[in-house]
């Protein structure tokens, strides 16, 4: 059975529900179940946090260096500068993720406006 095998208006929604939601939520539930039994200072949890942080950093780096869509039309220096400004705002203003995201977005949009 594939995405295109049924020609009904409701099929894409059911496919997304089953393939996207149910498949990932099972792992989330297992993570919550087993995560409650693991100490926050354990080596396993430190490793998991490290790998998760590295994956997020890799995705961000990939979006900056090899962007797609409209972002591909922006200069690489502007993308790097906006990321640096966002990171600096994050570090200087209390390590709040939302502050860093907004600062990076504002820097990117200001750079696009000035170009």
TrEMBL record:
Protein name: AzlD domain-containing protein
Top-level taxon of the source organism: Bacteria
Transmembrane segments: 12-34, 46-66, 72-90, 97-114
Keywords: Membrane, Transmembrane, Transmembrane helix
Keyword Phosphoprotein: no
Record's keyword annotation contains Oxidoreductase: no
């Amino acid at each position: 059975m594939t995405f295109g095998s049924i020609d009904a208006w409701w099929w894409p929604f059911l496919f997304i529900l089953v393939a996207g939601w149910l498949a990932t939520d099972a792992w989330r539930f297992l993570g919550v179940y087993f995560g409650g039994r693991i100490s926050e200072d354990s080596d396993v949890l430190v490793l998991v946090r490290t790998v998760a942080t590295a994956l997020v950093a890799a995705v961000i780096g990939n979006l900056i260096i090899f962007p797609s869509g409209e972002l591909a039309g922006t200069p690489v220096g502007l993308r790097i500068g906006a990321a640096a400004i966002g990171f600096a705002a994050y570090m200087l203003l209390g390590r709040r993720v939302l502050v860093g995201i907004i600062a990076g977005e504002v820097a990117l949009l200001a750079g696009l406006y000035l170009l």
